[in-house]
Automatic annotation (TrEMBL):
Residues of the STAS domain: 406-502
Protein name: SulP family inorganic anion transporter
Main location, first listed in the record: membrane
Record organism: Pseudonocardia abyssalis
Membrane topology term: Multi-pass membrane protein
Keywords from the UniProt entry: Membrane, Transmembrane, Transmembrane helix
InterPro entries found in the cross-reference section: Membrane-Transporter-like (IPR052706), SLC26A/SulP_dom (IPR011547), STAS_dom (IPR002645)
Keyword Amino-acid biosynthesis among record annotations: no
Matching Pfam families: STAS (PF01740), Sulfate_transp (PF00916)
């Protein structure tokens, strides 16, 4: 009698798996990190409001709405978005000349443009960013984070430097003893408690500007809905969209590298747009990803989920509205110490080691330095990245152009000369192509062999036309052979059609 064994019963899951962020250990890390980020956001938001020429609550409300919204719609978990200096610099002229209502209108339109750019696939352009530009971006950010703290250390009581030294010691030493409490939070609480208890008079968060005492209100900007208004705000809106996307996508890629995870750049792009639209309707000044606070959240705090981003926004609103009087007592020295450590941790020290610089090609170092110099000089990451990419393109084109070679052989009967072209033919390499042939001394038949070359653009086709024309003027027959299918299609489509024969 044959006996068959029934397969073991699979365990039945009656309840869905609990999300990882609900685990007490994870939630504690996310909450504490979000609290530290919120504390660090307050003086930054106030400072950026001053740059933009608006009331501090405009920047603070923008940081709250950006952080909370991007926590749900963003593509990079644990990244912090809030009011930023780059956006403040962009909108400052508009706010100064036309008022905050036009600024808000530009923020809303800028958000809509970001959504449109996301749909058009702007995130895919990130793959064209060379590594040297990314390194320059990181180093420039570190320098800007550090230099942005220097004003808080000029013309201040000597006690500030003592507090800063103690704060840095806590930030460096405490993580080596325990990670139960984040170093930044411990430094902020300890220094605040000391200055209050000892009655030490030093610059505080409250000295940076008046904190709001009410919640943001939903509304529509009080601007006329006319073509003139659109023409006025559109250039600023486009600048907001481009600067915000560049900073956010670059920061997202940086966090990807730090956490060894992949984020959805397209979702992050339209998420930034949605966040700016929401921020605009709540009267905020707009924003994008913040590298400094993101590094606090990811590298210092160890956060990895959207919870930290959401709580950073919530804690920010609670701190400035409900317990603003307590927050105002935090000495700026504590926050400066946190940001200095962020700058030190952000900088890619390996990239500037003498051994690395000797090993690295000069073109790569040039691209990195150009990104750093322009970013630091203009305080605009978009300019720095743009110049870095342009420099990389020019140096790459120059390097590839030098790899094109033209060699020639004469057949045994001396009736035909064969020219063999090797390399990538495009505008930089094909401009000199016309001078590589012996028009006056060549026999009656010339063969140009392109089997080891590739035709990339119309400039190359025009150069081949010029060579053919010069030979034909001398009664010499030219035959072009060896093109691959892509080169042949481009040549056949454009040959003889690039200049006016008449």
């Amino acid at each position: 009698m044959e006996v068959t064994m029934a397969p073991p019963a699979l365990p039945v899951r009656l309840l869905p798996a609990r999300p990882s962020w609900l685990k007490p250990s994870v939630l504690r890390v996310e909450a504490l990190s979000g609290l530290v980020v919120a504390l660090a956001l307050i003086p930054e938001a106030i400072a950026f409001s001053i740059i933009a020429g608006v009331d501090p609550q405009v920047g603070l409300f923008a940081s709250f709405t950006m952080a909370v919204t991007i926590a749900f719609v963003g593509g990079r978990p644990a990244m912090i978005s809030a009011a930023t200096g780059a956006i403040a610099l962009v909108v400052a002229p508009l706010a100064r000349e036309h008022g905050v209502e036009y600024l808000v209108a530009a923020v809303i339109l800028g958000g809509l443009l970001q959504i449109a750019l996301a749909v058009a696939g702007v995130a895919r352009l990130m793959r064209f960013l060379p590594r040297s530009v990314m390194v320059g971006f990181v180093n420039a950010l570190a320098i800007l984070i550090f230099t942005s703290q220097l004003p808080y250390l000029v013309n201040v009581p000597s006690t500030v430097y003592v507090l800063l030294a103690v704060g840095l010691a806590l930030l460096v030493g405490l993580p080596r003893l325990t990670r139960a409490v984040p170093g930044p939070l411990a430094a902020i609480v300890a220094l605040t408690a000391f200055t209050v208890a000892a009655g030490v008079v030093v610059p505080t968060v409250g000295d940076q500007g008046e904190l709001p005492d009410s919640l943001p209100v939903l509304g529509f900007p009080a601007v006329p809905l006319t073509l003139e208004t659109l023409q006025l705000v559109a250039p600023f809106a486009l600048a907001i969209a481009l600067v915000g996307l560049i900073e956010s996508l670059m920061t997202a890629k940086l966090v990807d590298d730090i956490t060894d995870t992949h984020s959805d750049k397209t979702r992050e792009s339209w998420g930034q747009g949605v966040a700016n639209v929401v921020t605009g309707f709540f009267g905020g000044m707009g924003g994008c990803a913040m590298i400094g606070q993101t590094m606090i959240n990811v590298k210092v705090g160890g956060a990895r989920t959207r919870v930290s981003t959401f709580l950073a926004g919530v804690f920010l609103l609670v701190l400035v509205v409900a317990v603003g009087q307590v927050v105002a007592l935090i000495p700026m020295a504590a926050l400066v110490g946190v940001m200095i450590m962020v700058a030190v941790g952000t900088f890619d020290w390996h990239s500037v080691k003498p051994a690395t610089l000797r090993m690295m090609p000069r073109s790569e170092t040039t691209v990195m330095l150009s990104t750093v110099v322009v970013t630091v000089g203009t305080h605009n990451l978009a300019y720095g990245v743009g110049v870095g990419v342009l420099t990389a393109m020019v140096l790459f084109a120059r390097r590839v152009a030098h790899l094109v070679e033209v060699t020639s052989v004469l057949d045994p009967d001396a009736g035909t000369r064969v020219y063999r072209v090797t390399g990538q033919l495009f505008f930089a390499s094909s401009n000199d192509l016309v001078y590589q042939f012996r028009y006056a001394t060549d026999p009656e038949n010339v063969v140009i062999d392109l089997s080891e070359a590739h035709v990339w653009d119309a400039s190359t086709v025009a150069a081949l036309d010029a060579v053919t024309t010069k030979y034909e003027a001398r009664g010499i027959t030219v035959t072009i052979v060896g093109m691959n299918s892509n080169s042949r299609d481009r040549h056949d489509r454009l040959a003889g059609r690039l200049t006016d024969a008449h």
